[in-house]
Every structure is written in structure tokens, then in C-alpha cells.
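[Q] Does anyone have a clean C-alpha cell version of this?
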Amino acid sequence: TPSLIGQDTKAYGSFAFDPAVGDLKVVKFAPEFSHDRWYQAALTVEGKIANLDVTYAGAYMERQINAQLDYSDYSYFYDAAYGHYITDNSLAVVDPAQKIIGNDHFTKNSHELRVASPTEDRLRFVAGLFYERQTHAIIQDYVIDALGSNLAVPGWPSTLYLADENRVDTDYAAFTEISYRLLPSLTLTAGGRVFESNNSLKGFFGFSENWQTLTGFSSGMLKCTFPSPIPIVHNAPCTNLDKTTDEKGFTHKLNATWQVDDDHMVYFTWSNGFRPGGINRVDLGLVHTPPYAPDWLMNYELGWKTAWLDDTLHFNGALFLEEWKNFQLTFLGPNSIPIIVNAGQAQIAGIESDVLWRATDNLTINGSAAYTDAELTQQFCSDLACSKGAPKGQQLPITPRFKANMTARYDWNLDEFKAHVQGSLVYNGSSWNDLRTIERGITGKNPAYTVANFTGGIGKDDWTLELSLQNAFDERATLYRYSECTPTVCGAQTYIIPNRPRTIGLKFSQKF
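[A] Here you go.
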């Protein structure tokens, strides 16, 4: 089974707004746009050897992104905080408006071969091999048009800062899973995966020698490895980054499933997960220094899937507890370069559930909800004195404590047509964007929000016409808050990424 899929997307303008300027308004000093195109080719081969199912799956993906973003906040706040350094060749202070011209090229090549025994056997197994190689060629060109050539990165006119790097991630794995039907209603499953991962990042990042000497900023040509007649990345002025990490490990899964009867099932799963470590471009000199280590997740889950009232009511759910060890945290460090550190230990406990009720032949109601208590179980220190960071018990970012949604749909016959109306409510609780106490106090909290959506339509035979009203009451939800550079420097200029405003749509579908 071969497949080919591709997409070409062009976007213009900013997806965020500045509440200090007005609702859905923003001030930018350079045009913002992106051109993102990708394709993926895949091949699946399925067959049998004796009574074993054999499957090969391979895929290749290539993606190119060209973008430009206004980055004037960085120039303004750093220039004001550290002295007016942005000058021309005559040392006259010039317009610090800055933009990022980005070119990113990604590839991903993956292969998997697996063998499985017949599903009806009392003892069943799956075993296989996996390989994946990902590459990312990075060019991030930070341009100030009026910048003097004496401050620019050599070979890159008007470039204050340059990132010209190549990243390669390679993963190897072998896995197996064995299931045994101990009793007609009880099945035990055990699985394991051994793996090796390799991560490398090479090239150049930072400022020119003159800029580093003038400002004292650490990243740039003064950290290059000389003599360097041929830079590792050919567009770079020299090489100051050549790092590699390698990890090996084992993950497991244990599961017990009890089929109480045809309508009720409960299960318990104990499993762990792994995320490879990696490379930071700069050494912070803090408690946690690059490279960052792998993080692990230990998961305990007790769940159920049930049907009631002659299969008209379905009630499913799960209780879960996750112990997150050495978890990886990303934030903007010196010079606003992203850094990943291991923030210590955290715990995530909660319950999630969904209900589907066919109330009548025409009316269906379904809903789901989740409560998640995610917090640090030890203090995180982002400096030697532990005066910065987050205390034990701090709520983890991104995930709200409570989320819920509900949908009701009514279908009926309207003369020769099939008609339907549907309404839904989506609730998302409040959340933070940063783990650290000082930074979350600067950028603020995302408030809870509720969004209502409605649709209605008619159809006949092989066509359907549907009218939709999304975000019917034009709720202005905050999905994310950020500043363009380190919040303690640029946090006074905080941007909000909102949800989609009220949207009316008309969709016609035709089957052939």
C-alpha cells in the first residue's frame, strides 16, 4: 500500500495580539509571513510467512519552512537595559528594528518490520525492529538593516546574530509484546523495548567578535574553534558548536484485562516511557548544565469500558498516576537562547471519563471530562542560590486542572432529506505558560474559557450541505501568552495568542 501526501501553506501577519494596543491589534516594524511546504511518501507491505502476519512500514518526509518575524522587542529591551550598542560604522546610534529571516529544512526517514502471531491464539506475540533518522538544517538570520558592518557577522551583511546549524537524531529499537489468555475472561500482556538514540548538533551560533567584545555577550565567534579553515556548516563563519549525546535503555509495559461480560471490561496498566536527552548550545553555569539528560515517565492506569441499558449508554474512564523523573523543561536563557534543563521530579494524578448516551433514535448526547493534578514534587532551582525557579508543589505549566466538553446531536427525516442539528460546549480551565515563579508572575495566567459551537445541515443520497457557527458568542480565549525574549527583560511586552473568533461556514460534500 503506497501513499503520498503533501501540503503547501502560506500565512501572513501575526497570530498574536498586544492587549496594551487593543483587542486583536499589534504593532510590528517588519512584515511577518511564513511559507511551509512538505510531502511524505510511505509504503506498507503486508503478508504472511506460514501463519505469521508480517508487516513492513517505511516512510520518508521532507519539509521546508521559510519565514520572517519581527524581533524588534529584543533589540529595544536589550539595548535599553545594557546600553545603546546598535550603531553604524560611524558609531552613531541607529534604528534597532530587527527581524528574523528563518530557513528550516527537515527530513525524516523511518522503517519498521514486525511479525505477529494469529490473534485468535491463546498465546499471542508481536516482535519487531525500528529505525528512524531525522535531520534539521537550521538558518536563523537576525537582521538589523542599519547595523554597521563592523558589528555584523562576517559574510552576513546586517546580521547581528546568526544560527547556522545541522541537527541529526537517530533512533534504533527492538520490541516485543506477549499476551496470554489465562482464563476466558482474563488476559495478561507483557511488552518491552530496547533502544539506542543518538543526537548531534553542529555549526555556529552567536554574534561577531566585535559585538561580543563591545557587549560582553558570551555566544559568538570568540567561542569558535580555531584554526578552522573549513566550518562544519559551510555558510557559517566558523564552528563553535560540535556536540553529540548517546543513550541506551529499556522500557516496559504490563497489562491485565478482565472482560467481566460482553458489556463490561476493566484493565490495569503499568508502563514507563522515555525521552532522549540532547544538546544545549550554551553552558549556563547553573546547577543544571548542558547537555540535558533523558527524562522518564512511570505510568499506572486503572480503566474501564462499559455499556448499559441495552447498549444505549456507554461509560468509559480511567484513573491514572504518573511519576515524571528528571523531566525536561525549556525556557529562554542568556541572550534569549532556548535552553533545556532537567527540572527534577513531578507527579501527575487524575481521572478522565467519557459518556455516550443514545437517548432516543434521533437524539445522541456525549461528553467527556478530565481532572489533572500536575505538580512538582521537589524544588526546582534555576540558579545556584535557588532564589529563582519554582517551589515544591508548583502546578506544572500548559495543562489546566479541569477540562470538559458536551455535544448533543438530533437527526431526523425532513420529507426526502436527512436533517441534523448539533450544539456543543467546550470548557478549558486556567493554566500557566511557565513553571518558574518569577516568569509566570510577569507573563500572567491564561484564564478559563467556554466556547459554544453549533451546526445544522441537510443531505440526500450522496450529498450533504452543512451550515456551522463556531465560537458562536465570540469568546476571546487566551491559548498562550509569551514575550519575544527572556521575560525578565522583555516581559513588559507580553503577547496573547487567542482562539479563532466567531466563524460562520458553509460546507458542501459530494460522494462519488
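[Q] Thanks! Anything notable?
[A] The chain has four helices and 26 strands.
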